[in-house]
């Protein structure tokens, strides 16, 4: 007996090593979910919201470097996948989304729940197609998977509900050729880059996630050039630990040492990064950029030498052409500045640390005497988390505190919505991460606003008994939006959140809930959260008035903040 379309698809997923398929069941998916039910090694993970399913699949793909898979049924079920799929697309990680569709004979008739998936996913997907005949399988599936893996993106395969049980006339297994090429620039281009770098007095490296697989070559390059290494957020993983050259991040979440290292160099060497914030690039220096994607070269800052190729292969060819720099003053200055900044951050992370004047100011502005510093919470998590923990973080202030106070040492991993910048990603990404690595500690840095959005998928964590640790920065605010408003001179508006007791909610849902309101209880509570078996939600009431000062604060930002605070004290309406 020939296999059905659904069976061809699920057997192919098994062959590819896909262990989990995330989604919400629905009638058009019934043939597929039934095939999963009867397949060893491929498990259906039923989520409460398809957005969470897509985030979880994307998390597994980012962590494993292989294909993540999610499913959404007809119409609304597929629409709900969209935000998580956009995150996968912006993260350039391969995800296959299998979407249901109305019966084939009804397509185009404005049938109940009908949505044109090929149009809906046009912007997000590198491949999208609707199966209109069983004989298109497995060829169409092969094309979808190859596109997702080779291009590092999302492929959407739509299967009408009445096709899943039909049998292709040719019964063959899907075959995939997924080896990725390793490329490097030609010799003349490498010679131009070496000439420019050798002529420089001060080289600074800007290193991104695209260089992660070339750690040894990047460190050798930094040593040869005596160059400080500025890391993007996504390069914390892989480059932060045991690295005598790194000086932390730049940008709004960065530090003065990194900003100075960039501004004081006369050549910038960009390795595997498409860092998007133009205002934080140095002015008036020469630039060499190495990236696998030619379209990335020069799109953030004008480039003098652009090298298309894998960072590791390119540096292996470039290093023999470089002169060894003996003057380490540029590197030493950057490292000294970084050490000084780190010492100041350690003082901020003391739960009892307060300057008298800031304490009085907070008393006036916030009328709260006993709130927990978010810096202290992040530092406590860093202390007690495992050396091989996997961290996820919500977009906003939770990511700021993680970037500054959690070190990616040992074999720690880090993912987040760092390109799309979505809210609500940390918890569902932690869900996917825990299923990917059941024996590792998974820690989600959750904003209270982000957690609230997909709160229902706490039940997914409970149902599958996933021992994730959810750390909630509960400042009753959309904190990053608040900061952005105040830096622009606007009073805080629309950012306050009427939160429940998240620990009590977690307890009601069958998780362990721990609520912390006193700084004196913080360290013991964090330790308890990590020592407690099973899923734990740690709800920590943090001070909403804490400000993350960027690496290069401007006068206009400071003045805007002062004006905003005055406006917040004054009545909003007269009369």
Q: How does this structure look, described?
A:
The chain is an alpha/beta fold. The chain has 23 helices and 18 strands. It has a six-stranded parallel sheet with strand order 2-1-3-4-6-5, with helices on both faces. Strands 9-8-7-10-11-12 form a six-stranded parallel sheet, sandwiched between helices. Strands 14-13-15-16-18-17 form a six-stranded parallel sheet, sandwiched between helices. The protein starts with a helix and ends in a 6-residue tail after the last helix.
The number of distinct helices, counting runs of at least 4 residues, comes to: 23
Number of strands: 18
C-alpha Rg (nearest Å): 25 Å
As a percent range, the share of helical residues equals 25-40%
Main pleated-sheet profile: 6 strands, parallel
**What's the overall geometry?**
globular
Kindly estimate the percentage of residues that lie in beta strands according to DSSP: 15-25%
> What is the CA-CA span between the terminal residues?
82 Å
Q: What structural category do the secondary elements indicate?
A: alpha/beta
Overall average residue pLDDT: 92
Biggest sheet: strands side by side, in what order? 2-1-3-4-6-5
Give the low-pLDDT segments: 355-369
Note the main attributes of this structure:
six-stranded parallel beta sheet; 23 helices; 575 residues; 18 strands; globular; 39% helix; alpha/beta
Concise description?
With 575 residues, this protein is of the alpha/beta class. 39% of the residues lie in helices and 16% in strands.
């Amino acid at each position: 007996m020939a296999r059905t379309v659904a069976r061809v698809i699920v057997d192919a997923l098994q062959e590819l090593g896909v262990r989990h398929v995330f989604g919400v069941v629905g009638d058009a998916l019934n043939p597929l979910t039934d095939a999963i039910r009867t397949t060893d090694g491929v498990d259906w993970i039923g989520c409460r919201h398809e957005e969470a399913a897509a985030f979880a699949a994307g998390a597994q793909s980012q962590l494993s470097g292989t294909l993540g898979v999610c499913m959404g049924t007809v119409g609304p079920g597929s629409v709900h996948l969209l935000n998580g799929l956009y995150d996968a697309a912006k993260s350039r990680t391969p995800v296959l989304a299998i979407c249901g569709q109305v019966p084939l004979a009804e397509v185009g008739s404005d049938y109940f729940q009908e949505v044109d998936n090929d149009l809906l996913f046009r912007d997000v997907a590198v491949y999208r197609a609707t199966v209109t005949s069983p004989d298109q399988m497995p060829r169409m599936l092969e094309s979808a998977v190859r596109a997702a893996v080779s291009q590092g993106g999302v492929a959407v395969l739509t299967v009408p509900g009445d096709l899943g049980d039909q049998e292709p006339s040719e019964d063959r297994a899907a075959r995939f050729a997924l080896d990725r090429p390793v490329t490097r620039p030609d010799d003349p281009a490498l010679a131009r880059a070496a000439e420019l770098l050798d002529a420089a007095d001060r080289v600074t490296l800007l290193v991104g996630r695209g260089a992660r697989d070339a750690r040894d070559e990047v460190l050798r390059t930094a040593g040869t050039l005596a160059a400080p290494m500025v890391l993007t957020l996504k390069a914390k993983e892989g480059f932060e630990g045991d690295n005598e050259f790194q000086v932390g991040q730049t940008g709004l979440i960065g530090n003065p040492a990194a900003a100075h290292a960039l501004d004081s160099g006369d050549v910038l060497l960009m390795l595997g990064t498409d860092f998007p914030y133009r205002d934080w690039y140095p002015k008036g220096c020469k630039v060499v950029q190495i990236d696998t994607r030619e379209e990335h070269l020069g799109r953030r800052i004008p480039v003098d030498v652009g090298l298309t190729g894998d960072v590791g292969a390119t540096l292996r060819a470039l290093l023999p052409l470089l002169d060894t720099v003996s003057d380490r003053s540029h590197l030493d200055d950057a490292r000294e500045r970084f050490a000084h900044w780190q010492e100041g951050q350690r003082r901020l992370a003391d739960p009892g640390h307060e300057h008298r004047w800031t304490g009085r100011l907070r008393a006036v502005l916030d009328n709260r005497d006993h709130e927990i510093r978010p810096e202290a919470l992040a530092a406590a998590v860093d202390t007690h988390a495992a050396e091989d923990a996997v961290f996820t973080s919500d977009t906003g202030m939770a990511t700021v505190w993680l970037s500054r106070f959690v070190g990616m040492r040992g074999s720690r991993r880090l993912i987040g919505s760092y390109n799309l910048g979505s809210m609500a990603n940390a918890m569902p990404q932690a869900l996917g991460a825990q299923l990917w690595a059941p024996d590792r500690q998974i820690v989600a840095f959750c904003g209270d606003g982000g957690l609230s959005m997909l709160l229902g998928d706490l039940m997914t964590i409970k149902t599958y008994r996933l021992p994730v640790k959810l750390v909630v920065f509960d400042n009753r605010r959309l904190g990053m939006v608040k900061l952005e408003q105040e830096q622009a001179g606007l009073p805080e508006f629309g950012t306050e959140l009427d939160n429940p007791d998240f620990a009590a909610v977690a307890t009601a849902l069958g998780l362990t809930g721990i609520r912390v309101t006193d700084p004196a209880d913080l360290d013991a509570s964090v330790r308890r959260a990590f020592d407690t078996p099973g899923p734990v939600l740690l709800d920590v009431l943090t001070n909403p008035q804490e400000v993350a000062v960027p690496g290069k604060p401007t006068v206009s930002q400071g003045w805007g903040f002062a004006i905003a605070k005055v406006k917040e004290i004054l009545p909003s309406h007269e009369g």
